[in-house]
């Protein structure tokens, strides 16, 4: 699966090989930033519509756009590293690990944002 390999090479170092995120991901580090969140069902990735997830991977977390105003993150932008197709493949891999209820909830969020 292409998405799994791309995830392993670009995302797992921070978000974990099993999508588990960094320890204490809800607690700010000494620099004021948050650790990388999990991408499994325990995280908040599935709370975001597809277009926002693509934007976050492509452009990093952007204050006032994909993050609250003034928010600073360690999430890098992958626009010069991954193609749109590769970003979509990574997101498909992440979603393939979600249980049906979580997958359906994320689909609903995506559909609501399109209307």
Helical percent range?
40-55%
Strand proportion, as a percent range, falls in under 5%
**What Rg is obtained from the alpha carbons, in whole angstroms?**
14 Å
> Based on CA inertia axes, which overall geometry fits?
globular
Count of beta strands: 0
The overall pLDDT, averaged over residues, is 95
- In sequence order, what are the helices and strands, one letter per element? HHHHH
Distance between the termini: 32 Å
Descriptive account of the structure:
By secondary structure, this protein is mostly helical. Helix content is 43%, strand content 0%. It has helices spanning 2-10, 12-15, 50-59, 84-95, 100-114. Helix 1 (2-10) packs across helix 4 and helix 3 (50-59) crosses helix 4 (84-95). The longest helix is centred in the C-terminal third of the chain and has 15 residues, at 100-114. The protein is globular, with a radius of gyration of 14 Å.
